[in-house]
Amino acid sequence: MRLAAVPASLALAFCIALPAKAQEVNDAPLTENWAPSEWGPDDKIGAANRTTPELVLKAVKLVKRGKVATLGKIYAGDAPAFGTRGFRLTIPGLPTGGPFGGQKLVYNDEYVATELGQVGTQFDGPGHIGVVTSKGMYFYNGRFLGDDGIGPYGMGPLGVEYVAQKGYVCRGVVLDAVALRGGPLPIPKENDKSDPGIVTDEDVKAMVERQGIAPIGEGDCVFLHTGHGNIWDPKKWDTFDKAEKTKRVAKFNSGEPGLGYSACEYLAERKVILVGADTWGVDAVGKGFGGERPQPFECHITLQTKRGIWMLENLDLTQLVADKAYEFLFVWSPLKIKGGTGSPGNPVALY
Predict the structure, then answer these.
(1) Strand, coil or helix: 90
(2) What is the pLDDT of residues 324-336, one digit of tens each?
(3) pLDDT band at residue 15 using 50, 70 and 90 as cut-offs
(4) Are 58 and 217 in contact (CB under 8 A)?
(5) 76 vs 232, 234, 336, CA distance in Å?
(6) For residue 15, how many other CB atoms are within 10 A of its CB?
(7) What angle separates helix 261-269 from helix 201-211, to the nearest 10 degrees?
(8) What confidence category does residue 84 fall into, taking pLDDT thresholds of 50, 70 and 90?
(9) Chain-wide mean pLDDT for the chain?
(10) Are the C-beta atoms of residues 121 and 312 closer than 8 Å to each other?
(11) In sequence order, what are the residues at sequence separation of 6 or more whose Cβ sits closer than 8 angstroms to the Cβ of residue 334?
(12) CA distances from 191 to 86, 201, 235 (A)
């Protein structure tokens, strides 16, 4: 999720300015004892701790056809991005260096400037989403932005490198909401479970049953296919002219169908370890930037900040749904970026 998609005033209230009035804070993390996590006060990984050798061996058995799908999208300067975020690749000279030696070796290197982890396919790590409380800005497992080691040059104990050391090898499940609804889901218009752009807990159960797969369970990685990601189709993107790309970027960024609060609570109760979607924020984002309820990005808080269930966004799930590969071996690890809030990458599904 990228907060640059929301108005500046909301972004400031959500994650920057410390409020002066009591009603401007959310003390649920304190009163509901979100910390320490079930893995102890020193944990920096979150729900990936649920991964066991037994679950890995069980997930490996899902590879039956010998097929592979890469789920990451293309990183490119003209791909959809919010606000001033962007991706720029420059090759400083062709060749960058050489020739060397009798064989006249030359080489090329690139310089990349980007908001790392927040452009393209992206992983939201422990340092990404917090809550403003009366004691400060609260993040996963009771850490605050004022804690030692957390600053402008890295998130210290909230850094993504701890999750990267563990990684994800799990049973992947793709929930095909396009098949359930009979077409791509629309951007929600109302903060209500009945809105067709919002995927609820009952929808999740219905998709599992419709797809004929085992119930979602502990250690699973769950991904939602809404069809919204096809607005930014990496296979066709370079065939569009500038005007068409501009139109598609605006539509893609204007909101998104996605998971409602009830669905995220249900997945958390099933003890999943990772949630993702073919959208830029996983949450349903519609009226007032809310989803099933008016609170913006409520799934981000209930999954990430409260439970350490991180997210993968802007996934390409088209091959999996085309092959009806609804469960598969999923393999992924964020990059070991010390102090990073997230990571880019290219997850792999084997089935």
Answers:
(1) strand
(2) 999 999 999 999 9
(3) very low
(4) no
(5) 12, 10, 22
(6) 15
(7) 60
(8) confident
(9) 92
(10) yes
(11) 117, 123, 125, 160, 163, 164, 340, 342, 343, 345
(12) 30, 15, 33
Beta bridge mates, 277: 224
Residue at 4: amino acid letter = A
Cα–Cα distance measured from residue 102 to residue 92, given in angstroms and rounded to the nearest whole number: 24
| pLDDT digit string, tens, across residues 178-191 | 999 999 999 999 99
Domains of the chain: 3-74+116-350 (3.50.30.50)
- Res 23: pLDDT: 55
Q: Looking at residues 184-202, what average pLDDT do you find?
A: 97
Local structure of 105: helix, strand or coil: strand
Tell me the residue type at 105: L
What is 172-183 written as a DSSP string?
A: EEEEEHHHHHTS
Element (H, E) at 142: none
Nearest CA among 238, 258, 231, 186 for reference residue 80: 231
Distance CA 320, CA 328 (A): 9
Among 316, 339, 311, smallest CA distance to 168 is for: 311
In this predicted structure, the answer to whether residue 22 has a pLDDT above a threshold of 70 is no
Partners of residue 329 on adjacent β-strands: 171, 350
Q: How confident is the model at residue 246 (pLDDT cuts 50, 70, 90)?
A: very high
- DSSP H helices, 212-276, are 242-253, 261-269
The alpha carbon dihedral of 278, 281, 284, 288 has a sign of negative
Q: What is the pLDDT of residue 2?
A: 42
Residue 239 burial by Cβ neighbours in a 10 Å radius (0-12, 13-18, 19+): exposed
Find out whether 279 and 228 touch, Cβ atoms under 8 Å.
yes
User: What average pLDDT does range 25-44 have in this prediction?
Assistant: 98
